[in-house]
Write a structure and sequence with these properties.
Elements: H1 2-6, H2 11-54, E1 75-82, E2 86-88, E3 92-94, E4 97-99, E5 123-125, E6 129-140, E7 143-146, H3 156-159
Antiparallel strand pairs: 1-6, 2-3, 4-5, 6-7
């Protein structure tokens, strides 16, 4: 009996050596995805809270003065807040990126700010936009009209899909 017990000495060490790389690999892959999910949830909370802060006490969101360059639009009715990490070049927003680390894998050739150019990438890009459709405003002859007050009696823009788009 004593000889059988002594032959199993070091078994736990061998199992640790075999399974530790597998556990570390799984942890590193799962943590990349978990970080991107956590980042997305936090972006949604911030975008939503900032959106409601911006529209407080406004029954006709958006107001014409809150929309930049509203003079060039024929009508608009949507207001939204988006999350970006930074602006690249001529004003293109870049979404936050999270790298999924896979041990024993070459580092990705693409960068976070590059567009996806293949089916495989080690970057998870998280984009968040929050907003609502609001009152529809028309821009005619240099004047801004609330949709029901536009004069020609056409209320279809208040109740159909056009209430959620911006046209230039």
């Amino acid at each position: 009996m004593k000889n059988n017990l002594s032959s199993q000495r070091g078994q736990a060490l061998i199992e640790l050596i075999i399974f530790l790389p597998l556990i570390v690999t799984l942890y590193s892959v799962i943590s990349g995805f978990a970080n991107s999910i956590n980042g997305s949830i936090n972006q949604q909370k911030i975008a939503r809270s900032y959106y409601y802060y911006r529209i407080q006490n406004s029954s006709t969101t958006p107001s014409p003065l809150s929309v930049p360059n509203f003079e060039s639009w024929s009508y608009f009715s949507v207001f939204f807040i988006g999350w970006r990490d930074y602006v690249k070049g001529e004003g293109s927003p870049v979404m936050p990126c999270y790298k999924v680390s896979i041990p024993f894998k070459d580092s990705p050739k693409d960068k976070c700010e590059d567009a996806y150019n293949s089916e495989k990438s080690l970057w998870v890009k998280v984009g968040t936009v929050y907003g609502t459709c609001g009152a529809t405003f028309y821009h005619k002859n240099g004047e801004v009209y609330y949709a029901p007050d536009q004069g020609d009696g056409d209320f279809s823009a208040v109740v159909d899909q056009r209430s959620c788009i911006i046209m230039q």
